[in-house]
Amino acid sequence: QVQLVQPGAEVKKPGASVKVSCKASGYTFTSSYIHWVRQAPGQGLEWMGLINPSGGSTTYAQKFRGRVTMTRDMSTSTVYMELSSLRSEDTAVYYCARGGENNPSRSDYWGQGTLVTVSS
Amino acid sequence: DIQMTQSPSSLSASVGDRVTITCRASQDISTYLAWFQQKPGRAPKSLIYAASTLQSGVPSKFSGGGSGTDFTLTISSLQPEDFATYYCQQYNSYPLTFGGGTKVEIK
Hints:
The complex is a heterodimer of chains A (120) and B (107). Chain A has 120 residues and is mainly β. Helices cover 0% and strands 49% of the residues of chain A.
């Protein structure tokens, strides 16, 4: 079965960077995009961008360009999302989600989320 | 960016009720519309994609409709496990955008 496994939590200081992992299993890693979506406490869902694990190409939301980097490690079927220059407003749960098989822009399976807390 | 507007933002309903949530896009997105269910402390779960196609394993009490700019999600007979927050998302163009959510609560 498709699984996306993420670490539970990270705590970072303002100005630092965080790198969140998303380990995929149960399907062919290179056959589906991976999206990243975040959710601030008590708020809605916000799409950050995606990576195509096959070639490593990325598409980022304008809001995060210059601060976000998405990469992949083919040897471990893991995708990473690094967010730099963290501020308190970046405190949120960060989810990875697999792109759909018939349309990679939609999402079907989601990871359980990683809570990133930015605090001094 | 395409703006997605959901209504209502919250609703109270009883077990067995038929519930409809609407989602409006700021421009034509054809049928590139998905619906997700999220329970507290859990990741979103895919319910419907392509406006009306049920994700595998999702019960048929959920149905979706619409095209262009106006869409609906209907739950035919609300059950206790359906009390959650529902989000629409357009995937017609980047950046992908979500509606603000509709919280379905027990009356």
